């Protein structure tokens, strides 16, 4: 569940990353820590756990978290080993998704590496390096797979997929623009190509434009481009986010309200990242703590239980589940939930849903 923050120099990556690490580190009772200087761990905002904790009189609230990696060092020519190019690309290979920060703010004091503000050119510069690296990898792989396919016809799908991928890359388009079958998707995952990774574009705008979103012409262009890749765009002002992250939680809301914003850009980014990774949360609630847990969409009850403890997965008997919304609709009263049959007993084949409030029964 790692996301990598990438982008050209001076677009606001470090500023955004600082906001991320400060927002995480500040919550002293959360199990967060900064593991390496370039890793930031942040809480996934979830108002449901706050509300559940009130009902259960919980002593502690533990949100779930995701990790952002600050992958600095991209310059033109990275795929040819310019600058820290190879190291940079290797770091991207290790993350599951990419947060691509593009500069949409004007500021004569902050030099742009290319001299002018042009987010589409910047996106292209970064994406081309990723695509060139993918092409190199695919060309090598194609030779090997073609050879092997002579003796093993089942490899033909892979050969065709590689050829199709090379063609799209030659057209200057990312792998993620390809429509793939399930089979092809599985092969693609094993290839771990950089331009196939899910992506979010972060348009970094000035303070004024965050409030008056329609006013920034660059953002519109980024949105149009992102749409061609089916990608989401989050508009933030990294500078404001950094300021917000230094405030106490009560002050944060006041600050946002003053600006006329419902939510911080960082919170929006975290939520969008969670969706991008195909993640959902189930919840556990009780007096000691109310907690959110991260699972992949499609996870079955025993494996979800395993997130809490491997013993619970091993000795899994059943899950007692109620949807968060159902529980809230009856005022959070579990006794009423039982009477009304809203508390369900689910077995080993149950696929967990986002917002399930769960109690697992297990053999020790
Ligand atoms: P990086 O090289 O991509 O990590 O960029 P930095 O985060 O170091 O930002 C480069 C410069 O741009 C710094 O001087 C920041 O203060 C400034 N900057 C970053 N975000 C914003 C923003 O949202 N608005 C304005 N006006 N300046 C910003």
From TrEMBL:
Signal peptide: none annotated. CDD domains: TGS_YchF_OLA1, YchF. The keyword Cytoplasm does not apply. ATP binds at residues 10-15. Its cofactor is Mg(2+). GO terms for molecular function: ATP binding; ATP hydrolysis activity; GTP binding; metal ion binding; ribosomal large subunit binding. It comes from the Bacteria. Residues 1-256 form the OBG-type G domain. Residues 278-362 form the TGS domain. GO terms for cellular component: cytoplasm. Keywords: ATP-binding, Magnesium, Metal-binding, Nucleotide-binding. The keyword ATP-binding applies. ATPase that binds to both the 70S ribosome and the 50S ribosomal subunit in a nucleotide-independent manner. Belongs to the TRAFAC class OBG-HflX-like GTPase superfamily. OBG GTPase family. YchF/OLA1 subfamily. NCBIfam families: redox-regulated ATPase YchF. This is Ribosome-binding ATPase YchF. The gene is ychF.
């Amino acid at each position: 569940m790692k996301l990598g923050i990438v982008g050209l120099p001076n677009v606001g990556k470090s500023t955004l990353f600082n906001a991320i690490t400060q927002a995480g580190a500040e919550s002293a009772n959360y199990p967060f820590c900064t593991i390496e200087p370039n890793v930031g761990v942040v809480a996934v905002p979830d108002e449901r756990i706050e509300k559940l904790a009130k009902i259960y009189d919980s002593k502690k609230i533990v949100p779930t978290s995701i990790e952002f990696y600050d992958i600095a060092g991209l310059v033109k020519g990275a795929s040819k080993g310019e600058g820290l190019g190879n190291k940079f690309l290797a770091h991207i290979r290790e993350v599951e998704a990419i947060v691509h920060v593009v500069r949409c703010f004007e500021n004569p004091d902050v030099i742009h590496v290319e001299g002018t503000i042009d987010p589409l050119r910047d996106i292209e510069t970064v994406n081309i390096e990723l695509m060139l690296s993918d092409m190199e990898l695919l060309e090598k792989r194609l030779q090997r797979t073609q050879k092997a396919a002579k003796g093993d016809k089942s490899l033909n799908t892979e050969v065709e997929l590689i050829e199709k991928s090379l063609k799209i890359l030659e057209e200057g388009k990312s792998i993620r623009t390809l429509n793939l079958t399930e089979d092809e998707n599985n092969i693609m995952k094993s290839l771990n190509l950089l331009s196939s990774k899910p992506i979010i574009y972060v348009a970094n705008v000035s303070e004024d434009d965050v409030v008056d979103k329609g006013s920034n012409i660059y953002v519109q262009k980024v949105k149009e481009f992102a749409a061609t890749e089916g990608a989401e765009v989050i508009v933030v002002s990294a500078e404001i986010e950094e300021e917000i992250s230094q405030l106490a939680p009560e002050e944060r809301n006041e600050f946002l309200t003053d600006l006329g914003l419902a939510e911080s850009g960082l919170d929006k980014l975290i939520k969008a990242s969670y969706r991008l990774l195909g993640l959902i949360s189930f919840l556990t609630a009780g007096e000691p703590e109310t907690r959110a847990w991260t699972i992949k969409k499609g996870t079955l009850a025993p494996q979800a239980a395993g997130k809490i403890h491997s013993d619970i997965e091993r000795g899994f008997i059943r899950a007692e589940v109620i949807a968060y919304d159902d529980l809230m609709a009856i005022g959070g009263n579990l006794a009423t939930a039982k009477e009304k049959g809203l508390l369900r007993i689910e077995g080993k084949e149950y696929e967990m849903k986002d917002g399930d409030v769960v109690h697992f029964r297990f053999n020790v």
